[in-house]
Amino acid sequence: WDLLASTDSSCDSLENGIPYSLPDRTAPVRIRIRVLTYNRLKSLQRLLKSLQLANYSSDSVALDISIDRPSSKADVDEKNRWKQVIEYMGDGAHHSSKFRWSHGPLSITVHKKHVGLFGQWTLANNHQDVQLVLEDDIEVSPHFYIFLKQAINFYYMNQSNYDSRMFGLSLQHQHTVLGQRTGFPMRSIDKELNETGAPVFFKYQLLGKLCDGAFFW
């Protein structure tokens, strides 16, 4: 994150990607889960339940939960739904948390002011773990951690497979494909390149919105 934040709206310093610099490649990968939430209690509970039931192979996994605060323009209903989240998750002062995390350290942060989704995504941190950032409108597979850890070991920790242009791994379905638009396929590569006529793209750079996944910050 320090590298990305230092670009000052310019990508010049990232032209060649992140150089490979892992002095202790024998150390195990540590994955820190970061959940971004605001005022959707039911969907948050669904996500937390799926995280709690996942297989972590006896690893200790830290869970950070970031709770945004209503803006000055929020209406009464929006504020009441936010209060429901606070009553369940706790605020470290007036409400204790009803949620229990049994797989490692738990940290709950309630922002002092409204920061928005972008503000939550770009929250600074001072740890060296690989971060898995999840918005609260999804749920994870029971096997997500096993896949993610193996993928990080293969693509990020293994120097022979390392690609300096790779900043993270998305856990979303590959619903956006080069040469296609939703409901309107566009032929961009000759059919002869693939027997099915549908080329499979791998590790390609694609401009899009922030998505749930692990980031090498």
Automatic annotation (TrEMBL):
InterPro entries: Nucleotide-diphossugar_trans. It comes from the Eukaryota. This is Uncharacterized protein.
